[in-house]
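Researcher: If convenient, please comment on what follows.
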Amino acid sequence: QVQLVESGGGLVQPGGSLRLSCAASGFTFSSSAMSWYRQAPGKERDLVASIGSLSYMRHFSDSVKGRFTISRDNVKNTVYLQMNSLKPEDTAVYYCNAGWKTYVYENWGQGTQVTVSS
């Protein structure tokens, strides 16, 4: 059974940083591209970043390019999202899923809330 468990969210001031983690199980993580998504209240879930299975390829949405980085540890089956220079518009619930610029599994995790506010 696929499990995606996101963590690391919280309340941060504008300009601050957070590092999100997503622990994955139930599929072959090391051969899967992984992506982060976010969903703000009243909005659709949007792609934030993707990383290839061996970390050679990375993709970022225009809204986070230059501020966020994505990385992974294929031994720990974990993908990370380092978020710097956070803005209030980054406030959302953040989710991860397998896939390159798309999602593979319908059963999403619970997500982790990120709130950027002074």
User: Anything to note?
Assistant: The chain has no helices and ten strands. The chain has a mean pLDDT of 97. The radius of gyration is 13 Å.
